Amino acid sequence: MDDFALCVRDKRESIVGAAMGRRDMVIIDAIYEAMRSGRRVAVNV
Questions:
Q1: Domain positions in the chain
Q2: What span, in angstroms and rounded, lies between the C-alpha atoms of 31 and 35?
């Protein structure tokens, strides 16, 4: 996230692609679901 904030500030492209960001969000969603449900959540990335 730090690099992304610097990219916005410096008006430059991020070296991290959209697919990597989406993958991270899928993982974060699975973490929240596991916390909410108390069970293991499978992630396909």
A1: 17-45
A2: 6
